[in-house]
Specification:
binds 5-hydroxymethyl-3,4-dihydroxypiperidine; single chain; globular; 8-stranded parallel β-barrel; TIM Barrel
Length: 467
């Protein structure tokens, strides 16, 4: 090879993006945690309805009712009931977090508890959440508060839920009230959890409340959710003026967006087209609306909604990414024009979801273009024996580190979940917890093998798990 050819080859190589190795041996040899930046938030996540117990909201009603053909809405007719009783065991749960060595906890406040009737506020519940935030701070754990994680008060559901613009007004009022009540303790706010998942299950597939199968209703609900987010962010900024953690900012606002890798099943153009459309709707609509302030929702053949939302552009200080899995996509004649599946032989979790850590790296790289810090607000797996979680945790944090090494501003990682909890339509069969919850033995919390892995990562990051 002459010198000119070598120079050209080197120039070409430098211009090529080289993907990091995701070989198991490489991952296992990496002291994960050491490559995360200073101030990185390492935490766990939960949501009120999944852990608190005793909630009365649209989901509790959905759990009691059935589809028109008589099938129960929830696997084995399970009800969330006492959940993990975290409403009463919060201090115990904080001790679990301290044992993990976490420095952040993402939890949601339950709107139906706080405002059981329009304009009627439950001051006792407000006080309890305030105490929780104080307890977390005292333990060196940053509270990250989600304002809406799927559930609605009954009165909001009765007025038409997210299809009704009045719900946007109600959520704005609720957000303002939360900012006033909790702002002295809370800086990190997550307005909404996974609006895309909520509208697909609730308004397109009809498997979550309100049980609709109507693409237009889905688009309307999603547009209202984005408007609610923008107005909520405005309220939080106006009414939470206390810098609780002393970092110079009184609020630090984002939302949690659920992403899935969609990969064409074959090289056929039809598979690629359908994959692109699926990705555009599910993964891209929301970030693009945040970037431009313009909501554009297109479902070929049925919906084209275009709307400017005041305040949406620049409404987030950070973007949360909830990442779990990848789907292979084949074009077919079904209403969604596609069949999504996991090829045989792939490693999966106990819900059959592909375990693909590289996908997290790819999304972090992709959303870096938004120009705001990113936070992995959820990542986890249903692992009923607990044996796969240590490597899952390691490999996904490795993916975060690779993105950080390439300059992506990732500010945190929250494992879903602290403990096994109510997994919506699937009831209590799935186990997403770092701590196992023994439902037949008084909701006792027990370590899974990944607790030790988490502690090791925390130590590598310079945190100090309690013994
Ligand atoms: O349990 C859910 C959570 O409520 C939202 N994100 C996905 C998790 C696992 O399915």
């Amino acid at each position: 090879m002459n010198a000119r050819v070598v120079v050209v080859a080197l120039v070409l190589l430098a211009g090529c993006e080289r993907r990091p190795s995701f070989e198991e041996a490489t991952i296992n040899a990496t002291p994960v945690g050491k490559g995360l930046p200073r101030g990185f938030l390492l935490g766990t996540a939960t949501a009120s309805h999944q852990v608190e117990g005793g909630n009365t909201n649209d989901w509790a009603d959905w759990e009691r009712t059935r589809y028109p053909d008589g099938r129960p809405h929830i696997h084995e007719e399970t009800r969330s009931g006492p959940a993990t009783d975290s409403w009463n065991r919060f201090a115990e749960d904080v001790n679990l977090m301290r044992r993990l060595g976490t420095n952040a906890y993402r939890f949601s406040v339950e709107w139906s508890r706080l405002e059981p009737e329009p304009g009627v506020w439950n001051t006792e519940a407000l006080e309890r959440y305030r105490q929780w935030a104080r307890l977390l701070r005292a333990a060196g754990i940053e509270p990250v508060v989600t304002l809406h994680h799927f559930t609605l008060p009954r009165w909001v559901a009765a007025q038409g839920g997210w299809e009704n613009p009045a719900t946007v007004d109600a959520f704005e009022r609720f957000s303002g009230r939360m900012a006033e009540a909790l702002g002295a303790e809370v800086d990190w706010w997550c307005t909404l959890n996974e609006p895309n998942v909520l509208v697909v299950f609730g308004y397109l597939e009809g498997t979550w409340p309100p049980g609709q199968q109507d693409p237009r209703a889905m688009a309307t609900a999603l547009a209202h959710l984005l408007e609610a987010h923008a107005r909520s962010a405005r309220q939080l900024r106006a009414r939470d003026t206390t810098d609780a953690d002393g970092d110079g900012r009184a609020t630090w606002i984002g939302l949690a967006h659920h992403v899935r890798v969609f990969q064409p099943a074959t090289g056929a153009p039809s598979d690629s087209i359908v994959t692109g459309l699926t990705d555009a709707f599910f993964n891209e609509s929301l970030p693009s609306a945040l970037r431009t302030g313009h909501v554009s929702l297109v479902v070929p053949g049925s919906v084209s909604l275009q709307r400017d939302v005041p305040g949406l552009k620049d409404s987030v200080d950070w973007l949360g990414i909830n990442y779990y899995t990848r789907d292979h996509v084949r074009q077919d004649a079904s209403p969604s024009f596609s069949h999504k599946y996991v090829p045989a032989g792939r490693p999966t979790n106990d819900l059959g979801w592909d375990i693909y850590p590289e996908g997290l790296y790819l999304f972090l790289k992709r959303y870096a273009a938004l120009g705001v810090p990113l936070v992995v607000t959820e990542n986890g797996l249903d692992d009923r024996t607990g044996e796969r979680r240590p490597y899952f945790l390691r490999s996904h944090l490795y993916a975060v580190e690779r993105a950080v090494a390439e300059g992506v501003p990732v500010h945190g990682y929250f494992h879903w979940s602290l403990l096994d909890n109510f997994e919506w339509s699937e009831g209590y069969a799935p186990r997403f917890g770092l701590f196992r919850v023994e439902r037949d033995f008084g909701l006792t919390r027990r370590d899974t093998p990944a607790v030790e892995t988490f502690r090791e990562v925390a130590r590598n990051l310079g945190l100090t798990p309690t013994p």
